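Changelog note: in this version the structure field was regenerated for every chain. One regenerated record is shown below for reference.
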Amino acid sequence: MLHRLMTSAAVLALSLTMVAPVAAQSNAGAYLAARSAAMQSDFEQAASYFTQALSRDPRNSALMESVVVSQLALGRVDRAVPVAEALLSLGQPSQVAQLVLTANTILEEDYEGLMIATPEGDGVGPLVDGLIKAWALMGAGRANDALAAFDSVSEEPGLQGFALYHKAMALASVGDFEGAEEIFSADTTGAVVQTRRGVLARAEILSQLDKDAEALELLQRMFNGATDPEIEQVIEALNGDAPVPFRHITSVRDGFAEVFYSVAAALRSEAGPEYTILYAQVALTLRPDHVDGLLLTADLFETLEQYAQAIAVYKRVPANDPAYHAAELGRSEALRRSDRPEASIEVLEQLARSHGHLATVHSALGDALRQQDRFAEAIVAYDRAAALVENIGGPSWFLYYTRAICHERLDNWEAAEADFRAALDINPGQPQVLNYLGYSLVEKQVKLDEALEMIERAVAARPDSGYIIDSLGWALYRLGRYEEAVPHMERAVELMAVDPVVNDHLGDVYWAVGRKREAEFQWARALSFVDEEDPLSEAKPDRIRRKLEVGLDRVLQEEGAEPLQVATD
């Protein structure tokens, strides 16, 4: 609904990849390079190549639109302005060009210009245009007209929550905290004011009204007792002697930035990131220190797999900000996903020193170390996380689960099993834990009946998980129930056609039921999928080659394992 009322996301997204006609063959190279970059959301390269193409075909409106989009996605409103002006001068409607020029007019503090109504369909969209006009009236000192403008926006279907939130922020920004709280406490405000940012803003408003106890109760009710450094900072201030200052919106410029941020935050769940980021970047252009905007923008870049851009934005969050730990956790993840695991771990190690009181930091460090097979170090990090959360009610199942994996990989089976079972005590039906513990018991060939029951429960919970169905087939194989294992292993291969371990398992099962030619085919397939340079691979290529040479019976004999019952019948 919000999406439709604002603009067509499909049109803007397509502007990055649309087939714009080029003026001459000499321009084709730049255009094709630009289009390729745009399809990968590489806005830096797209902006460069689209600009080159536009210089050779300066009246091509499609190229203009693509330049504006790619520059705005990078937060370069100043570079997008002249192209946006040229595009609109052609009489070509463009909502993204309007978005850029609106941001530029705000930067110039031209409130009168922002109040001028645009022709139907020529603005950014009903929500943004309406809120911008209202905030412009605030900037021009026409507060009563501004409040009426917010009310006008609230009459649009689906926009009431946004309009009332911004009206409350406008009132609070000029010190009318009673009026702001009246809006927040009403039953008609909608979900927008119930966001994390809205709740924290209301807590500040209540404190300004000497209602600290109500503010504390609000935080407890809305966050259900969960805290983080930002919430803890507000709680500490509320327990102090002085009122908590209202910091969310301190100027009209902040109000304009909040328009674009709140729209971007709402679009996050219903529009593509390549579209949402345009609004987030306008918010940051208007208010570079908008920390929630920084975190949102960095997350969008990460979703688009533009990790260098994400890392750069995460680094803009100041070290003294309560959300610094969240930014560093995000930066670490972006580094990991960009194949820089050691840099990712270094960020977390530094964060563990500066924010060692946060369990989530040690847990994230444990995860990063575990992913690099540094299991002993990971256990130390998980132990620290567990010690911290035990003081507030005990670790979650996932913390026990990941620590159990590390113990299992280090052959500390007694500790591993204890942690797996502790995870199940917290979350008895958790399929990941049931599968891992069940599969491990099968591999150790102990407690096989219990292991099978665990895996069957995991399959019931995740019937389309190839890994879990593979575990079920493998458990049946280990129990000597070869015929029963076949359909499960075949189903696992259907779901994970190129997984070497699953194909290898199917080969063993086929061999056990006498389908030896099919077994050899599956082993050959498994071998073709093995990445022998991957240190994390669980496949055993040498063992597969040996099975292809002499068969599974001989390999089991060489390993000193029990022979297959079928093979000896």
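Spot check on this record: The radius of gyration is 30 Å. Residues 7-25 have pLDDT under 50 and may be disordered.
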